[in-house]
Amino acid sequence: MIIKIHRGTREIGGSCVEIAHGKDRIVIDMGLPLIGDDGCGKADISKKIGTLPEIEGLYSSDESKKRVSALFVSHAHLDHYGLIHHADRRVPVFLGRATRELIEISCAMSGGSVAPDAWAPLDDRKPLEAGCFRVTPFLVDHSAMDAYAFLVEAGDRKVFYSGDFRAHGRKGRLMKGIIEDDIQDIDALILEGTNIASRRKAKSETDIEDELARFFKRKKDGIVLVSASSQNLDRLVSIYKAARKAGKTLVIDPYTAFVLDAMAKYGRFPDFSGAFGGLKVFFPTFITGKLVDLGCWPKIVNFSKFKITKEELTERRSGIVMMVKSSMKPNLRGLKALEGGSLVWSMWDGYLKEESSRRFLEFLGRQGMDLGAPAGLKVIHTSGHADLETLKSFAASLAPKTIIPIHTMNPEKYGETFNNAIMLKDGEEFEI
Question: Same domain for 213 and 82?
Fold first, then answer.
């Protein structure tokens, strides 16, 4: 069996792994590199800068008869699926049901499409065949819902691809389940190491919920805005529960409402069935118009039953927690509810350094919000990735012959942490 990591041995983003055995090959993930804000997923730009991995038989323009047997997508983050629309539509694509739906929602909002002609769903621990390969998906805890790791078997060789995972989220028990499966004789573990250089123990999602609740309770005068990903379902649950603990109403935009409504069939999330109190929807022009253009009017009508107006936001501002996006600026401009309000940043704090974030914070400041420490801007977040102790524990439980770094800026730390690590370069072949 031959492993080739096309991208990810020395960067976070753009993950893509090709595994070959005999005449058959599979690809796991085909992510968009995180190389700036220029949206380099377009075909012409991608080819110019070498973004597209050179994989024979993966693209429709490739005349090779050595067609890739299958493409597996671990989860719905752009750095793992963002280039799959370049793959030949005849190549079977395997991904989770909720993952596919989240990707389709994202692509519809951005005006793109990733729907292959042939796709099949993944089910936890249910093996499937692709050429000579036997691939078993394992549901893992991650900041993306419906994320998977993969056990790949062919001949007498076994490779375990961790994907992005952690043990401190709301589904942290899933890692224990993989360990208890007692998977033996792993030849190579392709292990993500986003946090391998940090010795900081990750906060649990429950810790985040409690920290949010304490902050919300302290803010007795003025609205609290929260900036968080609409597709981080664990975090949405934390924000909702924290708001309820603080006796406040959570206000979301229609896109976030659409995501929650779509995911309700996969788990227990705040939705619009009437079973959840303290949930309102604010309708910014741009987001609402986008959803209407996509044919989501029936959903908009349903969400409108939970509508909150600008006037109501101002009147009730001390009892409001409201999720915000930079695209909402036209509808937030001049909103009196913002005066004296605070902002919680519930995403990776590195995003705060980006120009778009800086402009958004400056805008909120001009609307009268207090973003100065200690009263104003507050970062309350935990990583979607495993901390160092979890990485060590997971690797020890699988006891692979070899550990291969991926999804990391610090591959050298693997050599310091594990005595069986091999540092590959992008495009380098490794035979087991």
Answer: no
Query: CA 257 to CA 280: how far, in whole Å?
Result: 9
Task: Please compute, for residue 45, the number of CA atoms within 13 A of its CA located in the half-sphere on the CB side.
Answer: 9
Do 43 and 174 belong together in one domain?
Answer: yes
193 and 265 in a single domain? The answer is: no
Assess whether 191 and 243 both reside in one domain.
no
Residue 304 shares a structural domain with residue 395 = no
Q: Are residues 270 and 335 in the same domain?
A: yes
Report the number of distinct structural domains present in the chain.
2
Is the pTM higher than 0.70? The answer reads yes
Q: What is the pLDDT along the chain (432 residues), one digit of tens a residue?
A: 999 999 999 999 999 999 999 999 999 999 999 754 333 333 343 443 457 899 999 998 877 778 899 999 999 999 999 999 899 988 999 999 999 999 999 888 877 666 566 789 999 999 999 999 999 999 999 999 999 999 999 999 999 999 999 999 999 999 999 988 889 999 999 999 999 999 999 999 999 999 999 999 999 889 999 999 999 999 999 999 999 999 999 999 999 999 999 999 998 898 888 778 999 999 999 999 989 988 888 888 989 999 999 999 999 999 999 999 999 999 999 999 999 999 999 999 989 988 999 999 999 999 999 887 555 689 999 999 999 999 999 999 999 999 999 999 999 999 999 999 999 999 999 999
For residue 194, give its domain range: 2-199+384-431
**CATH code where residue 31 lies:** 3.60.15.10
